[in-house]
Amino acid sequence: MSVYSNSDSANIVLIVVHSVLTIVNIAGNFLVCIIIIKNRDMRNLLDYLLLNLAIADSSTVIFLSPKYIFSHAFSHPEGSLGDALCIAVTGGNIGWVGAVTSVFCLVAIAAERYYAVVHPIKYVARPLRKRNLKVIITCTWILGVIFNIPAFIYRRYNEERKYCINTWPSVWVGKAYSLSWLLLAVLSTSLMAVLYFRVAYTMWFKKEEHRRESNLRQRAVPRMRKRATLMVMLVSLVFGICWVTDRTNYVIVHFYSPSDAFFSLAASNTLVLINSTINPIVYALVNHRFREKARMMLRRICCPISNTALPGADGPQVMALQQRRTGGIPEQHSRLPSITDNTQSSITEPPFYSM
């Protein structure tokens, strides 16, 4: 593979940044997957969407970062083998499938939150069933593949540039494709912004009316609801900043072809990887329940003997979770308040959004 800049220091920075992002991304999203899979109280509908999001984010960094990290380690094959590697691995197509999948997954989560908060009675009366959830998750991946079909068709290895590029049949095709990516980023960001604005407005400014309409719902502490809403808004904000910036840069490169295009694209791709890495960090910073479960999981891995010998050392929240697994506390009495909809039903309530 070739380097992405004539500056050695710039290439070193790029390698270090991508290496750190890869480690943090895989570790964080793997922890999210393990927490959801290992905890029965987190195996509900919205948590499975978050599990799908973690898998998509992991695939993004696994298939996008290596071409930057190992650019100095080996030479890319040429000819038909080089083209095949570009399509399957080194061109990053599979990574972009995961990236687009995460976009549609975030939109699905925003739509679910909107439906739960703005239309709570309908949400409780007609909850999303597992069959529908499987359809939604499958559709996110199908859409991710469909959106990347042109890249799978036209990605080739350029022997002169020593880099995988899209060999478009005409210039306007490449420009149109880059504009479609920008449109995807702008529309998804705008849709999530509208949905979360309605969620925040309903919770904060229509509080009394919302409580009268939602007699099936629990009453959460306002501070908890605000922090939880800020969490999902922060995730959407980071997505919008990273993706719109990256896709705008792609449009500039396709329309104006600057001399430092390759390094510019590599730098903007880093923003997409940051977006894929940031979600577990946001959960840990804002979501108290996720922090407790992550702490329990890490203690179980690192200190299995001391963790079993000293069950009380985890604090009251962790003891409550441990007692729940052994039947000490009925789940309906031990549930923590939700981020947004605070529904009493354990089917529709997302524990991952609890505080």
From TrEMBL:
Residues 335-348 have a biased composition (Polar residues). Its main location: membrane. It is found in: Membrane. Pfam families: 7tm_1. The chain crosses the membrane at residues 12-37, 49-70, 90-111, 132-153, 179-201, 228-246, 266-286. The keyword Transferase does not apply. Residues 326-355 are annotated as: Disordered. Keywords: G-protein coupled receptor, Membrane, Receptor, Transducer, Transmembrane, Transmembrane helix. The keyword Protein biosynthesis does not apply. This is G-protein coupled receptors family 1 profile domain-containing protein. Belongs to the G-protein coupled receptor 1 family. Residues 28-283 form the G-protein coupled receptors family 1 profile domain.
